[in-house]
Amino acid sequence: MSVKAELVSQGMSIRSSFLALRDFFRERWNQTSVNRVATFKILACLAIVTLAASAAAALARVPLLKTVEWKIYDLEFRQLSNAFHASQEIVMVQIDDFSLARMAENDFGRFPWPRDTYTVLLDYFERACPKVITFDILFLEEDKSQFGDKTGQAADQELVEGTRRLGNVVHAVEVNDTYAFRPQEVGVQGYELGIEIEEHRSVTLPFPALAKASRFLGTSFMVLDSDGPIRRAVPFVRQGTRFYPSLSVATAMAALDVDPAGIRMDAAGLHFGNRLIPLVAFDQEYVERIRARHILVPYRGSAYADEQRTITAYRSYRFWDLFLSELQLREGQKPEVDPAVFKNKIVFIGTTAAGLHELFQTPFGDEGRMAGMQIHASVVDGILSNSFIKPGTLVSSVLLLLISTLLVCMVGVYSG
Q: Which residues make Cβ contacts (< 8 Å) with residue 233, sequence separation at least 6?
């Protein structure tokens, strides 16, 4: 065969191969119209996923949608929480309407009572040896009044001595932004914290002798979301270079014997001894808008564990019953409540009477309104059990949306 004939033969062979390959792909493409439709569906699916991700990132900053997100968060709490899982180590002493009435009827005065009234309760707890006693009651100024033949200053001194004698009492600090107030000299120092801790204009401690006698001091400061409920706890505040923990953090410090040197904050969260408490960043409006880091309150349940509203999430006792029990013990009588039930307990003392306006809305709705001390107790419960709520990041939320949207689109592709 000549060279020319050989080249023509090879050219024909290549052309035949190309035509065969073209016909193969054309046949595959034209095999059914379903393939073309499926291809377009997949392309449309990818476009929808991209648009959904962009929309999610943009809408996450819309206030109305943030409120909707909080409402879904509340609904999950109502469905998943169980008040019967609340720590048995935490108990509450309620200054309720019954206690107010009984104290007045028995000539112990109307609220607010002389401060030696609380000393009776401290004497009672001294018999029981609880782990911590936390007052969610403010004793900011020295009492200048007169009660019969006893002065307010003498009553103050009894409270100071009782606090010092027990050595495990936490007292409350007031935080206020309506007016500026010079930082007080008395305060717990030694925290490894920085200027990222939110600053407030006024921090008022208990009167000096009581502040010095306390094991720790903690703020009773609460943050309400724009739609009403308390979902977040402020772990620390500062005034200048002085740092103050919340009542819940201070109580947990006393209960777990964690000193200020064992607490620090970094990008990972709040390091509390060998625990790491996750913090969530929020844009918070006070006197001015700031970026703050808070704890999502790990509520164990609503204020009550039963529909009849007779059993509280944390075991509770009336102030009057314990006050009366101490008087009975002093007289050699059987007490209304045996102090032994408080051994090694974490005790919160606070007001729940309706007229004192100390009930706050929570994710559990109007029926879940609870006293400030129960909100603090919920945070302590989370610290004790090392159980917290950690929200997903924006990246994880968008990825979840992408996967969900993609799955829905794929179902549409293969079902239609």
A: 223, 246, 248, 294, 295, 296, 297, 375, 376, 379
